[in-house]
Amino acid sequence: MTIRVAMWSGPRNISTAMMRSFGSRADTVVVDEPLYAHYLALTGLDHPGREAILAAQPTRWQDVAAALTGPAPGAPGVQYQKHMAHHLLPAIGRDWLGGLTHAFLIRDPGHVITSYAKVRGEPTLDDLGYPQQLEIFRTFGGPVVDAADVLHDPERTLGLLCDALGIPFDPAMLHWAPGPRPDDGVWAPFWYAAVHASTGFAPYDPSPADVPAHLRPLADAARPYYEELAALRLT
């Protein structure tokens, strides 16, 4: 039986590196941001590669849900679904989520917002995905890992995550070959340069975030969501 892991992250996190980590397992296939086309179609946002994304994925959330909960092609031991939490728009039904095993990748809002400000000047709370992560967690539960813990001690934190998911830890999760992979989303040329150049998780950087002054209220608004999840993270 395939264990379907839905990993919910926000932007400007280590979500693609985590996808690489799970994709390095011999028993795992990955699905890269399957709700992205629906998100673009419904919001009308003009992201890089928009037309290619709309052509590459279903734009109806019902079709995505059916694919993610139906028979997994090849019947792998694990299907790792990399989800951006902000892609789970309010109009999307929630019942199908009960067929998945959920996990949560969080990052301190100060670091998220500082990074996000470099690519989009005025993000909103919904853009960051914290409310959506907490909604899913409160309904379905699942293990929580903090990006800082992953980077500080990848082997230990991934071992804890695997135990919580009911799958064995595989040392192959710690390293991978550089370059693109066939299961990368069609948006990879725009966003995955750092991961394509990597062979493992980046070194841990304990430096404090330097949040732009005009975005500090956003960081304050996001912090209660983050802290509720962080208090329950695997350590």
Describe the protein's architecture and organization.
- The chain is of the alpha/beta class.
- The protein has one domain (3-230): P-loop containing nucleotide triphosphate hydrolases (Rossmann fold, 3-Layer(aba) Sandwich), CATH 3.40.50.300.
- The chain is 41% helix and 12% strand.
- It contains 12 helices and 5 strands.
- The chain has helices spanning 15-23, 36-43, 50-56, 61-69, 109-116, 125-128, 130-140, 147-152, 154-165, 188-191, 193-196, 216-230, and strands spanning 3-9, 28-32, 78-84, 101-106, 144-146.
- Strands 2-3-1-4-5 form a 5-stranded parallel β-sheet, sandwiched between helices.
- Helix 2 crosses helix 3 (50-56) and helix 7 (130-140) runs parallel beside helix 12 (216-230).
- The longest helix is centred in the C-terminal third of the chain and has 15 residues, at 216-230.
- The mean pLDDT is 97.
